[in-house]
Design goal:
This protein is an alpha/beta fold. The chain is built from 9 helices and 8 strands. A hairpin with a 2-residue loop joins strand 4 and strand 5.
Length: 222
């Protein structure tokens, strides 16, 4: 089974240093929650986020949602040929149970992730659907123990989706950025066996996920 990781994903609760900002408090009140219980979202918390560490890589849970949908609504996932992990910017890892589907509505998705952060595990009929743990990227790689880790970045060696897909074998790990702008941290990059660029332009992460998985899917089912 090929492992898929969205690394340094912009999916986190409002950090403690921002929870008293007026924009955060106002948004939390609308949701009927404490400011420490809601996702950091640049759409609502732009003023609060100005100048924070890694500002351009944070506060875009909607983009993470897009990538998750691209990875979990395809035959590869439905036939258990891939396993998805979400590594967050604040070093947590979200695990998916078998054939778990997140809500297509962003608002319901945000509510689900906020509940997950609070309860640590989402279950149904005694089956674990989602679970979140404190874990670094390197610890996750050690746990998966793939034979090769392939990262996708504009800093990588130029290659095509088709060529990369043709070389993938069952215990590889593919790593995509779960953030809007910027590059992987050095601590992430050093875990890569190989890093590829798949175009002359910078594409949004969910686009790269969709195209790469489609090409790999063709090698499996076509």
């Amino acid at each position: 089974m090929v492992s898929i990781i969205l690394a340094e994903s912009a999916l986190e609760l409002v950090p403690s240093e921002l929870k008293h900002h007026p924009s955060v408090i106002s948004h939390a009140r609308k949701l009927g929650k404490y400011s420490s219980e809601i996702l950091l979202d640049n759409s609502w918390h732009f003023a609060a986020m100005k100048g924070i560490t890694n500002e351009l890589k944070r506060g875009r849970p909607d983009l993470v949602h897009f990538s998750i949908l691209e990875a979990t609504t395809i035959p590869l996932y439905l036939k258990n040929k891939i396993k998805l992990y979400i590594h967050t910017i604040d070093d947590k890892v979200i695990y998916f149970g078998q054939n778990v589907h997140v809500p297509k509505s962003y608002h319901r998705f945000a509510g689900l992730i906020e509940k997950l952060y609070k309860e640590k595990k989402i279950t149904s009929n005694e089956n674990t659907l989602l679970e979140i743990k404190d874990k670094t990227f390197s610890e996750l790689i050690d746990e998966i123990n793939p034979s090769k880790v392939i990262g996708f970045s504009t800093k990588g060696t130029q290659n095509s989706y088709e060529k990369i897909a043709g070389d993938i074998i069952d215990d590889y790990c593919l790593v995509f950025g779960g953030f809007q702008k910027g590059h992987f941290s050095d601590s992430i990059e050093k875990q890569f066996t190989q890093m590829y660029s798949v175009g002359d332009e910078s594409f949004e992460g969910h686009t790269v996920v969709a195209r790469m998985l489609y090409e790999y899917e063709k090698t499996i089912f076509m």
